[in-house]
């Protein structure tokens, strides 16, 4: 087993649960964002960053909070489910955040690209930004604390040192008269 991963039967259950929940959440997101909508008109695509957020703020703080909250919450569970499905207990917080945020951004971009062919759905660059921010915020809020709790609960303390293994063949022989290895 690779070092740094949660070990044992409990780890397998966590990874399987994370994978199943990840697939279920992605199926819900696909259904929610890619279903055709029967609307009398369609607004044009928003390709200007933060223009939609400014327009939401112009509607009032309650409507803006609802719309921005929806954008943040749609893919936010991925910030927890992706590291859970991966199962690394000893991972860099920054590296894990970057990997998870990049995965969230790519999934959001894929959804935006698929929406171009769905009737009634419109591409919005602000949704990509909000979805990625939601993934990052959920990851920062839960994953570092959960990993710390699991490491402490596992009774392992600090990260185990990596042993340097001796080569299987031993030292390389040298030729006495020449003084170099063959």
Helix and strand succession? HHHHHH
Ends distance: 35 Å
Gyration radius (Cα, Å) is 24 Å
Shape: elongated
Mean pLDDT across residues? 85
Structural class: mainly alpha
Quick structural gist:
It contains 6 helices and no strands.
Write a concise keyword list for the protein shown above.
single chain; mainly alpha; 0% strand; Teicoplanin_resist-assoc; 182 residues; membrane; VanZ-like domain-containing protein; transmembrane helix; transmembrane
Q: Could you outline the blueprint of secondary structure elements for this entry?
A:
Layout: H1 8-34, H2 51-58, H3 61-74, H4 78-86, H5 93-115, H6 125-153
Region (Disordered): 154-182
InterPro entries: Teicoplanin_resist-assoc, VanZ-like
Pfam families: VanZ
What would you say this structure looks like, in words?
The protein is an all-alpha fold and 182 residues long. It has one domain. Helices cover 60% and strands 0% of the residues. It contains 6 helices and no strands. It has helices at 8-34, 51-58, 61-74, 78-86, 93-115, 125-153. Helix 2 (51-58) runs antiparallel to helix 3, helix 4 (78-86) crosses helix 6 (125-153) and helix 5 (93-115) packs antiparallel against helix 6 (125-153).
């Amino acid at each position: 087993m690779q070092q740094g991963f949660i070990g044992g039967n409990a780890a397998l259950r966590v990874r399987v649960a994370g994978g199943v929940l990840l697939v279920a959440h992605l199926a819900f997101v696909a259904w929610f964002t890619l279903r055709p909508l029967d609307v009398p008109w369609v607004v044009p695509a928003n390709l200007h960053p933060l223009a939609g957020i400014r327009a939401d703020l112009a509607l009032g703080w309650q409507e803006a909070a609802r719309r921005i909250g929806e954008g943040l919450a749609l893919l936010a569970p991925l910030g927890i489910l992706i590291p859970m499905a991966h199962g690394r207990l000893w991972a860099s917080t920054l590296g894990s955040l970057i990997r998870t945020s990049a995965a969230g951004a790519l999934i959001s971009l894929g959804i935006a690209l698929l929406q171009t062919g769905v009737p009634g759905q419109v591409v919005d660059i602000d949704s990509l930004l909000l979805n990625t921010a939601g993934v990052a915020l959920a990851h920062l809020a839960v994953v570092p604390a959960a990993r710390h709790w699991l490491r402490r609960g596992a009774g392992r303390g600090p990260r185990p040192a990596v042993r340097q293994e001796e080569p299987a063949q031993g030292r390389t022989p040298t030729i006495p008269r020449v003084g170099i290895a063959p």
